[in-house]
Design a protein that fits this description.
heterodimer, A: four-stranded antiparallel sheet, 10 strands, B: mainly alpha, 9 helices
């Protein structure tokens, strides 16, 4: 469904992606893990054409999207939904208007159809009763769920999640993880989840890829990852840092 | 070099917008919202600008003309000056401050909060959604706002001349009608249309290229107002020279 070959991206003087190769099969859920600032979100934005690479290819359903114009990418973007890290809700619209937005833009004008589809989404996301609220009045978890509802209302064949549990408390994170799993089972979509939350990755992924220094350092099942003897991977899984912070670093004399 | 690139980006945005305008469906609701925002809500500012400019210009002209016994010629001077220069330029500067700043800030905020990326990800082309309704609303509203500013300016000038400065009303009107031609009106409205285009594309471009959070939005807004104001003043000279060939001033 999605294939990435030799993707290179430089921003300013910094080389963010240094030849990423990745394949995602139809219906599969791939989690991309890695340290903060490691280029995971940049990679995800390339998959929907929001960023242009310096080199490499991205194939989605047999089409190389690299040379596509912004207008031609619309056809691809109708098949691929994305949940942004900050949800990116339209702050001048209510929850219901945000969720209905993709349908309206696709030409649906019948208020009955729009109300029915929005209501279905509110049920799935457990957001009934919040449809008239403005995004500014929502909690972080609710914003993520509204963003997700907006991404899936047009029933895409692939969903990209950018840090779906970042900034959420463990209970809300767990509810988001369950929601992602439920959507996979219900819609059978291909999913790519970018995260540094290992609980999130193990909960939702069929396969995990570890992005390190701009390249895919490891690919395998969650079990392969757990069993890996590689020191770098074990340090990441256990959250071990090789930096020694002395009391002096905090301005405290020992 | 950066200035040439900046001009190029604005020209590309304008070309993209006109292409969308003629080939894509218009979002009527957004267009009408912008008509309200640009046209309807700018009226008070424009009326006050036109009124007080007309009043003070009439008074100053009278003070000079009265000395040489030409007090009744004030109407003609005020009318032609407001139609050809003061009305379009002052309205454009006020609209830049009120509407251009708002456009740049709104689009800039959408840019830095990933709302424009969200539009793109939802298969909506940002130019179609954000720029086309604003550009079309500006092209419709600006000539009407300038017409309003001119009408109020001339009317207030008349009242100041007749009731405060005691100029003979019959001669004042006769001179004004004699020396004011339809080409003066066309020139004023042509300028309004051109200024509207400059304001909308400079402001939208600054919003679409805003970066680095709240500071970036603030900077984009300031630059939009400054650049659009300068563009209005500079282009006004060239428009005057060009349009004067097509619509020459004076009684001919």
């Amino acid at each position: 469904m999605i294939a990435v070959h030799g993707l290179v991206k430089t921003i300013g003087a910094q080389e963010i992606l240094r030849g990423v190769d990745l394949d995602v099969a139809r219906g599969e859920t791939l989690a991309i893990i890695g340290r903060s600032g490691g280029g995971k979100s940049v990679l995800l934005k390339h998959l929907i054409g929001l960023m242009r690479p310096n080199a490499g290819e991205i194939w989605i359903e047999g089409q190389n999207i690299i040379d596509m114009s912004e207008r031609n990418l619309a056809a691809i973007r109708q098949k691929v939904g994305i949940l942004f890290q900050g949800s990116a809700l339209f702050d001048s619209m209510t929850v219901a208007e945000n969720i209905a937005f993709p349908l309206r833009e696709a030409g649906e004008r019948d208020p009955k159809v729009l109300r029915k589809r929005v209501s279905e989404m509110l049920d799935v996301m457990e957001l009934q009763g919040h449809e008239e609220k403005m995004p500014v009045n929502l909690s972080g978890g609710m914003k993520k769920r509204v963003g997700l509802a907006r991404s899936i209302i047009r029933q895409p064949s692939c969903i990209l999640y950018d840090e779906p549990t970042s900034g959420l408390d463990p209970v809300v994170s767990d509810s988001i993880n369950r929601l992602i799993r439920r959507l996979q089972q219900r819609l059978g979509v291909t999913s790519i989840v970018v995260t540094h939350d290992m609980k999130n990755a193990f909960h939702v992924a069929d396969r995990i890829a570890y992005l390190h220094e701009g390249q895919i350092y490891f690919q395998g099942t969650p079990e392969d990852l757990r069993q890996s003897p590689d020191q770098l991977i074990q340090d990441f899984l256990l959250g071990r840092s090789d930096e020694q912070l002395t009391p002096k670093a905090f301005g405290v004399e020992s | 070099m950066r200035f040439v690139q900046y001009l190029g980006e604005i020209v590309i945005l304008a070309a993209d917008t006109f292409h969308s305008l003629f080939t894509r469906r218009l979002r009527w609701k957004l267009f009408l919202n912008q008509i309200v925002e640009i046209g309807l809500l700018s009226q008070l500012v424009v009326v006050i600008t036109g009124g007080f400019t007309g009043a003070v210009f009439t008074a100053q002209t009278y003070f000079q003309f009265h000395k040489i016994g030409m007090g009744s010629a004030v109407g003609a001077v005020v009318s032609v000056a407001i139609l050809r220069e003061l009305g379009p330029v002052l309205t454009a500067l006020m609209v830049t401050g009120r509407v251009g700043a708002a456009m740049s800030a709104e689009i800039g905020t959408m840019k830095v909060t990933e709302q424009i990326d969200a539009l793109r990800a939802l298969a909506v082309y940002p130019t179609d959604y954000l720029v086309v309704p604003r550009a079309l609303a500006m092209m419709v509203s600006m000539p009407l706002l300038v017409a309003e500013c001119i009408a109020v300016g001339i009317a207030v000038g008349y009242f100041v001349a007749i009731f405060l400065l005691e100029v003979n009303g019959t001669y004042y009107m006769a001179n004004m009608v004699r020396w004011t031609r339809s080409r003066d009106i066309i020139m004023g409205l042509s300028k309004a249309f051109c200024f509207g285009i400059l304001i909308v594309f400079i402001s939208c471009h600054k919003g679409l290229t805003a970066r680095e959070g709240a500071v970036g939005v603030g900077r984009a807004t300031t630059e939009a107002v400054v650049n659009a104001s300068l563009a209005v003043l500079i282009s006004n000279f060239f428009l005057t020279m060009l349009l004067n060939i097509i619509y020459p001033a004076g009684y001919q």
